[in-house]
Amino acid sequence: MGTLRFNGKDYEISQEQTVSELVAKNGGDGFGVAVAVNGRVLPRREWETTRVGDGDDVRLVRAVAGGAFDDFPTDPKPLEIAGRTFRSRLFVGTGRFISPAVMRAALEASETEMVTVAIRTTGVDGSGPDAGILAALDLKRYHLLPNTAGATTVRQAVFMAELAREALGTNWVKLEVIGDERTLWPDVTGTVEATKILVREGFIVLPYTTTDLVTALRLEEAGAATVMPLGSMIGSGQGINDWDGIRRIAERVSVPVVVDAGIGSPSDATRAMEAGAAACLINTAISRSDNPPLMARAMRHAVIAGRLGYLAGRMPRSDQAIPSSPPTGVVPAEIPSL
Q1: In the chain, is it the N or the C terminus that has fewer CB atoms within a 10 Å radius of its CB?
Q2: How far apart are CA 77 and CA 40, in angstroms?
């Protein structure tokens, strides 16, 4: 009959078909899938009645890999985001693991309660990057946090968030608007703008940003559920490059601060928590380690140690040595000969 555009490629069809029929052929049972027709995200309730044919542009996306609990008996305020309480303060990304089995083992070892997934288009046969990611996740155990990774404009980020909401049935989104593709540095102006739009649309927005205090304050004013300053460049493993910047943000904003990106070792995670962060989101440091499950376990303990250290309060710094033993009663330096 004609040709429609399916995820940017020509797709020959013999006759018009409903979106439900198209999804059945290319998206399985439809869970974790969202569809946009001619630039509009199509609610699932309209799949049966909406027909597509020659000249239509159809985008079908799915979630892909992006991203017993330890209690804090001395923590007076458990982590709460948008009314939801989390016992684990470690969030984990699902990207770049060598296999779904290793990913599952790492997630279990981390004892995380929230994992991130990316949204990507699929092939006309339903194939695509990490096409089976949702099947590898225990959706009763983990709260999914879709992200807009790869978005470079406000419109693109908002569109991806809308697709994620349709695909996964969640209004939570980790917002990324990238300003520089070489460093993956956030476009802070675009991030604030996109946050305002998504909050108006009913999303719970967790925006990725820099350690700039003013931007963090603007994001909070825009209605962000958290502020997520980077430790350093995404995937760099450089650690916490602006500890004071994270500390200033944690002291000034009332929403939780989640350090995201650049953490490379457990000591980095501890340092982030000692700065006053409420949680850490970690992916590459776990997935690209020699032993991801073991590293995930290490990160879990590092986050706990940093949180408890922050609550305990650091000892004051001194420019000179202060003896821990009492200065009186020391054996004389001059000892008589026998």
Answers
A1: C
A2: 41
Query: pTM to 2 decimals?
Result: 0.78
Ordered by start, the domain boundaries in the chain are 61-312
Q: What's the confidence (pLDDT) of residue 122?
A: 44
Report DSSP state, residue 230: B
Report the pLDDT averaged over residues 311-337: 76
* Residue-level pLDDT at 95: 84
At position 194, the amino acid (one-letter code) is A
Q: Residues 25, 77, 174, 196: which is the catalytic one?
A: 174
So what's the architecture of 61-312 in CATH?
Alpha-Beta Barrel (3.20)
Instruction: Please give the structure tokens belonging to residue 67.
Output: 């991203």
174 tagged catalytic:
yes
Number of helices (H), then strands (E), belonging to the chain: the values are: 9, 19
Sign for the pseudo-dihedral over CA of 86, 285, 67, 140: negative
Closest CA to 165 of 281, 36, 49, 260: 36
188-200 vs 213-221: helix axis angle to the nearest 10? 10
* 288 three-class SS: coil
pLDDT the model gives residue 65: 54
Size (the chain), residues = 338
Cβ neighbour number for residue 60 with a 10 Å cutoff: 25
| pLDDT tens digits along 193-211 | 999 999 999 999 999 999 9
Across-strand partners of 33?
62
Can you tell me the distance from the alpha carbon of 121 to that of 159, in angstroms, rounded to the nearest whole number? 13
Residue 172 has pLDDT above 70, yes or no: yes
